Amino acid sequence: MRTHRCAIAVLIATLTLPMAAQRRVPKDLGGTRGFNYQSAETIGHVEFWLQYNSAVTKRDLDYAKRLQLNQVRVFVPYAAWERDKEGLRKNLLDFVRAAHERGIGVMPTMQYKFNEWKDKAAWSNARPFVADLVATIGKEPGLAIWDVENEPECCFLPPTPDNRLHMEHAMYMAKVFHELDPVTPVTIGATFAENMIAMGEAVDVLSFHNYSPTRARIRASIAKAKDYAEQVHKALINTEIGCIARANPYDVTLQEHMQAHVGWYIWELMITGNWGTVHGVFYPDGTVRDPSVVAALLGFFRNRGSNVVEDVPDRENHLTEAVTKNKAWLADPNPDWEAGLDLAEVSANLLEAAQLAPMHNLPTRQVEILRSGQQDIPALRSMLREFTSLLEPYQLSPGDPRRSRPPGFIR
Q1: How large is the average pLDDT for residues 269-276?
Q2: Per 3-state DSSP, what percentage of the chain is helix, strand, and coil (rounded to 5)?
Q3: What DSSP element (H or E) covers 76?
Q4: What was the pLDDT predicted at 403?
Q5: What is the C-alpha to C-alpha distance for residues 72 and 104, in angstroms, rounded to an integer?
Q6: Is residue 148 packed enough to be buried (19+ CB in 10 Å), middle (13-18) or exposed (0-12)?
Q7: Residue-level pLDDT at 303
Q8: Which residues in the chain are classed under CATH 3.20.20.80?
Q9: What is the pLDDT of residues 320-371, one digit of tens each?
Q10: For residue 91, which of 105, 101, 103, 81 has the smallest C-alpha distance?
Q11: How does DSSP classify residue 304?
Q12: What's the alpha-carbon Rg for the chain, to the nearest Å?
């Protein structure tokens, strides 16, 4: 009888535990390989949801799967919900399920009514919005974490008085999510590790952003975030990294976070109309802006050490031959169009293969554009002169030892 009463007591205690104790809080998110997402075909997050295209979403998620990415962060604006509640529910459910089918967890990131955070009396107005989202996807297995507010303290360190009020709003919304969804963990995407720490008690998972321009500063931010996470025994992730305009190259920042075993989300998967000039991996057709980003996402990085092997593009005299033929074509008063295009293509391939030219406007791309247009000898002359001038410094003299074979070489 006594054993039976003890068992009942344990059961009652379990059922009356605080809701937070039943929450699916991850212990370690170091294996998170995530991305921020909006389709390339839409402008802004509101338009993304109002013009949602399931086929486009699945195409893009397939790109992410090929890169072995396992988490997606997607913004969900109040404005989209306000304009089409039923449409947002349907589209959000489709998104979460499509991601889950591909082994990708979803982190919805909230955007509330514009500037409502400035009025404390209006904060509770967001409850119907949150409640509807929880009712729609709260029990979906693809839902990973609620990001209850993005960068409420953007972008000041230390925060301004307005920032502090915005941070207070974010912590208030964390409580709302905790109340309405007793299972899914919550986070706040802080702009800086320091501000993440200031809001740390309000969340289940710690999240910070890092667009620092040097390895030392990236490492310092990671170290500060990790130290705090270890003190409070909470999982840590970085939900925004990578920007070519902030001296925060993807391959550099990814390498630092991987080596520190801190999970990450790049900004962003697609080259979009919003941020495409400085962020993004894929074009809609699956081509990429920079293959080094793809390599970095898969854990392969450029060799920046002292053991780099020098490229010798003229080792077998092909570069010298290209320069000689280019000059002959340029000296011809009536050059052949197709022959000139072939010379330009050979030169472009040499330049790209040995990385002798800026890669933001690929030489081969320039050649293809000329090939696909009307015959334009002056434009081809200009291109071939430029390519030749880039190749010439890498010509080797006949007796240069770099033309020789290594000792014992047999072919």
Answers
A1: 94
A2: 50, 10, 35
A3: strand 71-77
A4: 86
A5: 7
A6: buried
A7: 94
A8: 19-297
A9: 999 999 999 999 999 999 999 999 999 999 999 999 999 999 999 999 999 9
A10: 81
A11: -
A12: 27
Dihedral sign for Cα 81, 85, 91, 92, please: positive
Residues whose CB falls within 8 Å of the CB of residue 135, separated by 6 or more in sequence, listed in order: none
Q: For residue 261, is it left (φ>0), alpha (ψ between -120 and 50) or beta?
A: left
pLDDT over threshold 80, residue 17: no
CB 293 within 8 A of CB 281: yes
User: Has residue 406 got a pLDDT over 70?
Assistant: no
Name the fold adopted by 19-297.
Answer: TIM Barrel (3.20.20)
Strand partners, 227: none
Longest distance between any two alpha carbons in the chain, whole Å: 109
What six digits make up the tokens of 201? 């008690």
pLDDT of residue 254: 98
CA distance 383 to 370: 10
Q: What pLDDT, on the 0 to 100 scale, is given for residue 404?
A: 76
Cα three-residue angle 116-120-121, rounded to 5 degrees: 95
Q: Which amino acid is at 41?
A: E
Assign 31 to helix, strand or coil. coil
Number of H helices, E strands in the chain: 15, 8
E-only strand ranges, 308-403: none
CA 33 – CA 202 distance, rounded (Å): 24
